[in-house]
Amino acid sequence: MARAKRLQGEIAIITGSDSGIGQATAIAMASEGADVVVTYFHDREGAEETRKQVEKHGQQALVIPLDQRRYESVVELFNQTMQTFGIPTILVNNAATMATIKPLKDLTPDEWDDGIKTDLYGPFYCCKQFLLAIEDSEKHGTIINITSVHQEIPMAGAAIYDAAKGGLRNLTTTLALEVSDKNINVNNIAPGMVLTPMNQESLDDPELQAEEVSKIPMKRAATPEEIANVAVFLASRDARYIQGSTITVDGALTLKMALA
């Protein structure tokens, strides 16, 4: 007898699903029965590859460009989703940027605005529209925010990223309190080092990658699929009593830093 698919009948919006964790999550959720809305900022080709992989699992996929710094773009994302698939039941806020690495005193206001709008405003806009879409339905909703170990572990030169991910963690917990009686679960996943395009420098430099991996107690980076598997669990019925929590997926890096 075939195993029942854990996300059968669900409709998932996964931001930044053209590569990395977002792409792996889209494919994993499709394998469990969800139809998927794939979003991208620049990489249309990557988004189309995600669509193909979703469809290989027998699920529907919708590819939509998204600039989540702009509220109007997020509204259009949800309008197109509802016109095509109906009410979304899963939101994974994955899209993020870590482009500006420099000391805080050297940051420009424009750099700060761009990073915070992408990594914090964008998830806020998406959460807001998701709640507006599902609030009057009888459907169960799941919001999963992808934060980072840097919500806890600061990194010199990453003031924008650290501030945004810490803010997103607190947005998660606050929202969880607000919707706990409304059949909606809100949690976040905090990955450590993951082999994705965001870590391209490490991917391209074996010596740098080895140095970074040496700091991790498990002595390896995570794969995008390992983060995606946690997202599938959080979106499933098995996780319905998990609310406002951070699931840290970092090979014990945070534990090591805490004990240092």
**Beta-sheet strand percentage?**
5-15%
Structural class per helix/strand content?
alpha/beta
Which CATH C-level class is it? Alpha Beta
Report the CATH superfamily: NAD(P)-binding Rossmann-like Domain
Structural commentary:
The chain has 260 residues and is of the alpha/beta class. It has nine helices and seven strands, in the order βαβαβαβαβαβαααβα. α3 runs parallel beside α4 (109-134). It is globular, with a radius of gyration of 18 Å.
Would you kindly provide a brief summary of this structure?
The chain has 260 residues and is an alpha/beta fold.
Features:
260 residues, alpha/beta, Rossmann fold, seven-stranded parallel β-sheet, 9 helices
Task: Give the SSE layout.
Elements: E1 11-14, H1 20-31, E2 35-40, H2 44-56, E3 61-65, H3 71-84, E4 90-93, H4 109-134, E5 141-146, H5 159-179, E6 184-191, H6 200-204, H7 206-213, H8 224-235, E7 246-249, H9 253-259
Parallel strand pairs: 1-2, 1-4, 2-3, 4-5, 5-6, 6-7
